[in-house]
Every structure is written in C-alpha cells, then in structure tokens.
UniProtKB/TrEMBL annotation:
Official protein name in the record: Anhydro-N-acetylmuramic acid kinase
Catalysed conversion reaction: 1,6-anhydro-N-acetyl-beta-muramate + ATP + H2O = N-acetyl-D-muramate 6-phosphate + ADP + H(+)
Domain of life where this protein originates: Bacteria
Assigned EC number: 2.7.1.170
Gene3D superfamilies, per the entry: 3.30.420.40
Function: Catalyzes the specific phosphorylation of 1,6-anhydro-N-acetylmuramic acid (anhMurNAc) with the simultaneous cleavage of the 1,6-anhydro ring, generating MurNAc-6-P. Is required for the utilization of anhMurNAc either imported from the medium or derived from its own cell wall murein, and thus plays a role in cell wall recycling.
Protein source organism: Isoptericola peretonis
Pathway: Cell wall biogenesis; peptidoglycan recycling; Amino-sugar metabolism; 1,6-anhydro-N-acetylmuramate degradation
NCBIfam families per record: PRK09585.2-6
HAMAP family listed in its UniProt record: AnhMurNAc_kinase (MF_01270)
Biased composition (Low complexity): 410-428
GO molecular function, one term: kinase activity
Length: 435
C-alpha cells in the first residue's frame, strides 16, 4: 500500500509530505520503502491567520470554522501534489495530521487536543480516502496524545538483545522536542516531551531580526549564554512533571520568555545573538536533563536526532557536550530515514496501521502504552467512512525495516505554483515540527 503522509508543525513554516510504500510480511516485519518527501509552503495570508490563532490568542468560533476549511483545502492540495510528485500518481491513501491549534493539558494530564484541517476537503482535493485525527483516540484512552512517534521508534530502532546491547533515545527536535527510549524489540518503550525544541528560538529570531529561524545556528554561534536567563527558564515546573508528559504552544507561547524572565527578576533586554544562544542552550539542556532523569540507569548508547533541530550545528554541538561521553549522537539520515521527513513518514505509517485495524501506540511500562494510554489504541478516523478494500494483516507488527529504491529518500526538484510553492532543497536550519 502506498500512503501519502502530510503534516504541519507548530512553526507553520511548511506542509511536509512523504510517500511510503508499506508491505507487511508474514513474519511480522513491516517493510517501508521511502518514495520521497517534499515541502509545500503555506500561502502567506493563511500562515499569518494560523499563527494569529495560536495561544495565547483568543479566537472566535467563526475563525476556527474558516481555518478548519482553509487548512483542509490547503492540505488537500498538498496531498494531491504529493501523489503526483512523489508517488507517480499511484497512491492508495492520505494520512493527515492536520494543524495543531491547541493541546489542552491540566496538571500534567492531557484533557483534549485540536488539529484543524477538515478531512472531507482533503479527500475531495486529493481524490483519495483520508485517515486523520490521530491524537484524540489516545487521549480518550488516558494517553497524552503526544508524542505519537514512539510506535515508529519502537518498531524501527529496537535491537535484538545480546550482551552489551544498549538502549536508543530517538530525539525529535521540532517546535517541541520529544524523545522515545527504545530497548530490545518487543520490550516496553517510553516517550515524552522534553520541552521546547525550536519554537522559542524561532519566535525570538523572527521578532528580533525578521528572519524565519536561526539558519545554521549562525546567530546563536555569535552570542553568549546568559546564565541568569537560562536558570530562570530552567526553573519552569514543567520539567519536574513525571513522564509520559506532553506540552505545546499553549505553554511555550510568544510571551513565554519575557514572562518567565520578568517573574524571576532577570533582565530581558538580551541581544539577539545572546538570546538565540540562551534558547538553543535551553533546548539542549532540557533534553540532556530529561534523559538523565528518566532514561535507563546505564544511559543510552546513542541518540538518533531528527526534526529541524538536526540541521542546527550549534544545537548538535551543545547536545554532544551535555550528553555522556559514552553516548553517540547520530541523525536519522545516518540510519536511512530523512530527518526532515520523519514525522510525515510517521503519519503515513499510522494511516497504514489504522486502516488495517492495528494499534498505533507502542507498549510502555506498567501495563500502559508509551503515551500513558490504558490500552493499545487504533488511531485515526477514515473519510469517507466506506471500508477500504484492504487484506487482513497476517499477525502482529513486530518490527519495521527501511528498504531503499533509486528514488527513495530524496526531495525532488518541484515546480512551484502560486498557491503551493515547493522547496526544491532542504534548508540546513532549525525548523518547526509537529511535536
């Protein structure tokens, strides 16, 4: 089955699309052949409206209704382009994460989550059935609804055991940073949000320089970390919450840094370079702290980095400096999965699992799922609701293997259109991501 995964992150900088050819074998091995990935830019006017609707903004229902329609139309147009650009016109299904507008968390527990992008519009424009609304079923079963990537990490990065085998930490640095701890295949995994990824840095750079992000970490490399400001930001109670846990722009909103520094009596008039350096250090420090506090007692053997943060050399250097010397840092690209497209491939995987009635959550500790859900949960809803002509799966999905092809793991050079221009090459920059 060929599935197109589409997603948009908290930075709302692009619609990410990936095409995956998925084939489940009788031994429980799911083969994923990456057919390619691309980025489609949001129209400027719509991107501004989405950003204006994010917390702490107060938005009326009329705007929510309009955004749900407009986002769905744009995601549908992107999916239609991806069917042709990435899959040669041959795709069976679209899996859409949508655009997160709010993640409702009270006292560490997720009560609800809202992603916009009505699937009926996506199905109409892509001319394909659509699986969407992946997070709510997990929340209804007591889970955090995020990060959902733990199922991909568990199937892909588990080891076969043996003496000296060590766990892997799959780290995704998008708008929010999250991590999954993966041991041997079949063992419970644990995933959680560590804190801010790129969202605070991107917002500060946009506000102070007009640039969309700190390309190649250039601004942070020119600055110095402000210890007082860093300590004030690290004192947020979120970092003391038990795992699994989740967060989003409702905590790390556009006023977060100024509010935290003012409450601590710390000067907020840092230079753009010093603020960029401090916020980059915040991301690295909260990741390292989170792994030390909640990871395995013996540490992890490697950290596999994905998301926009994988393109930021300053962040990578700070992670290497703060992680134990016995822990290696590699990117998802090194292991065959494009770091920029991992989440789009994730939703392609979840769409495939969903239409086959296979749970999209990974087993976690204490008889819970990795997200904290009480039971395994099939994720997503199908639009239209007519059952797909798919064969029953031969048994449980035990592991995922990446297979390559001549056009796998490439971003094609695509012609642009006024409504959905594409990015012909991936920027080496800190970018937002879904979680």
């Amino acid at each position: 089955m060929i599935v197109i995964g589409v997603s948009s992150g908290t930075s709302v900088d692009a619609i990410d699309a990936a095409a995956a050819d998925l084939d489940l074998r009788a031994d429980g091995t799911l083969h994923l052949r990456p057919l390619g990935h691309a980025e489609y830019a949001w129209p400027d006017h719509l991107r501004r409206r989405i950003l204006a609707a994010l917390p702490p903004a107060a938005v009326d229902l009329g705007e929510v209704c309009q955004l749900d329609t407009l986002v769905g139309q744009e995601l549908g147009a992107a999916a239609r382009r991806a069917v042709d650009d990435l899959a040669g016109g041959d795709a069976d299904l679209v899996a859409s994460h949508g655009q997160t507008l709010h993640h409702w968390v009270v006292a560490g527990r997720t009560r609800g989550t809202l992603q916009l992008g009505n699937p009926a519009w996506i199905a109409e424009r892509a001319r394909r059935p659509v699986v969407s609304d992946f997070r709510v079923a997990d929340v209804a079963a007591g889970g955090q609804g995020a990060p959902l990537v733990s199922i991909l990490d568990a199937l892909w990065l588990g080891h076969d055991g043996g003496e000296g085998a060590r766990a892997t930490a799959a780290l995704n640095v998008g708008g929010i940073a999250n991590v999954t701890i993966v041991g041997a295949h079949g063992e419970p995994v644990l995933g959680w949000d560590t804190g801010p990824g790129n969202c605070l840095l991107d917002g500060a750079v946009q506000r102070l320089t007009g640039r969309p992000f700190d390309r190649d970490g250039e601004l942070a490399a020119q600055g110095m970390v402000d210890p007082a400001a860093l300590d004030a930001l690290l004192a947020d109670p979120f970092y003391d919450l038990p795992v699994p846990r989740s967060t989003g722009r409702e905590l790390y909103d556009s006023e977060y840094v100024a509010t935290r520094l003012a409450a601590a009596g710390v000067r907020a008039d840092l230079s753009a370079a010093d603020l960029a350096a401090t916020l980059t250090e915040l991301t690295a420090a909260t990741v390292a702290r989170s792994l030390a506090e909640h990871g395995p007692a013996g540490g992890v053997g490697r950290v596999v980095l994905s998301g926009g943060g994988a393109r930021n050399p300053v962040l990578r250097d700070r992670l290497r400096a703060l992680l134990p010397v016995s822990t290696s840092l590699v990117t998802a690209d090194d292991l065959g999965l494009p770091a920029d497209a991992k989440e789009a491939y994730l939703f392609a995987l979840l769409g495939y699992l969903g239409v086959h009635g296979v749970p999209g959550t990974a087993a976690g500790p204490h008889r819970r799922q990795a997200t904290g859900a009480r039971r395994p949960v099939v994720l997503g809803s199908l639009t239209p609701p007519t059952p797909l002509p798919v064969s029953a799966v031969p048994g449980p999905v035990r592991r995922l293997v990446l297979t390559t092809s001549p056009r796998a793991m490439t971003t094609p050079s695509l012609p642009t259109t006024p409504s959905l221009p594409t990015t012909p090459s991936l920027p080496t920059a800190s970018r937002g991501s879904t979680r």
